[in-house]
Amino acid sequence: MVLAYLIGFLCNPLCPLWLKPLAKGTMKFKYLILLVVTVLALALDQGTKLFIDRSMDLHSTIPVIDNFFNITYVRNKGAAFSFLANSSFRLPFFILISLVAIVVIIWVIARLRPDQKLTAVSLAFIFAGAIGNLIDRLRLGEVIDFLDAHWYEHHWPVFNVADICICVGVGLLAIDMFIEERRLKKQG
After folding, report:
1. CA 9 → CA 55, 62, 94, 150, distances in Å?
2. What is the C-alpha separation between 142 and 29, in angstroms, rounded?
3. Quick one: which of 23, 71, 144, 176 could link to 10 by a disulfide (CB 3.0–4.6 Å)?
4. Rounded CA gap, 43 and 2, in Å?
């Protein structure tokens, strides 16, 4: 049903031109992966942040698994571990870094070989995570975090879906680099 609706939309003359290659089946795999991962990850990231923002008070906590995992609504003005949270240039700096990362990822994806599918997937996750946190920084001047992993009183910094996407992407990229290195050694 959803697939039929999507195909109907893509074949419609009112379909945006940038979606036409998807309808014709001419869109390269790497761009299709970038599009699908980004749309799904952003929907999940922004949807969960919106839900948390509208349903919880700032700094409130909902225990999910005792002594292991909570939903805790916080706002992070910095980056990982609140890096540069109190700096006067933090917002322009993080926006610039995000924009540079987005441009570099698009540039790298455009140059991938057709067989570099895992690289495309990993970069798509990093891309989606960067955009998810960039949206928060542009909209709020800070990032909504709510996933609180901990072992009793030892807490990891609270994070969000965009952060998970970035970490998954970096992990997949590390695996892909290892696989690529082995492939090159076999060739040489």
Report:
1. 34, 41, 36, 45
2. 34
3. 23
4. 16
53 carries an active-site annotation? no
- Write down the catalytic residue from 136, 145, 148, 176: 145
DSSP-assigned letter for residue 68: T
What phi and psi values does residue 165 have, to the nearest 5 degrees?
-60, -45
* pLDDT tens digits for range 46-93: 999 999 999 999 999 999 999 999 999 999 886 665 566 566 767 888
Q: Is 145 a catalytic residue?
A: yes
Contact 141, 91 (CB under 8 A): yes
End-to-end CA distance of the chain: 49
SS (H, E, C) 70-123: EEEEEEECCCHHHCCCCCCCHHHHHHHHHHHHHHHHHHHHHCCCCCCHHHHHHH
| Per-residue b or e along 45-83, where b marks 16 or more CB atoms closer than 10 Å to that residue's CB | bbebbeebeeeeeeeeeeeeeeeeebbbbbbbbbbeeee
Other CB atoms within 10 A of residue 106 CB: 13
Task: Find the mean pLDDT for residues 99-113.
Answer: 95
Claim: this prediction has a pTM higher than 0.85: no
The stretch 127-137 carries a mean pLDDT of 96
Catalytic residue, chosen from 45, 136, 148, 163, is 163
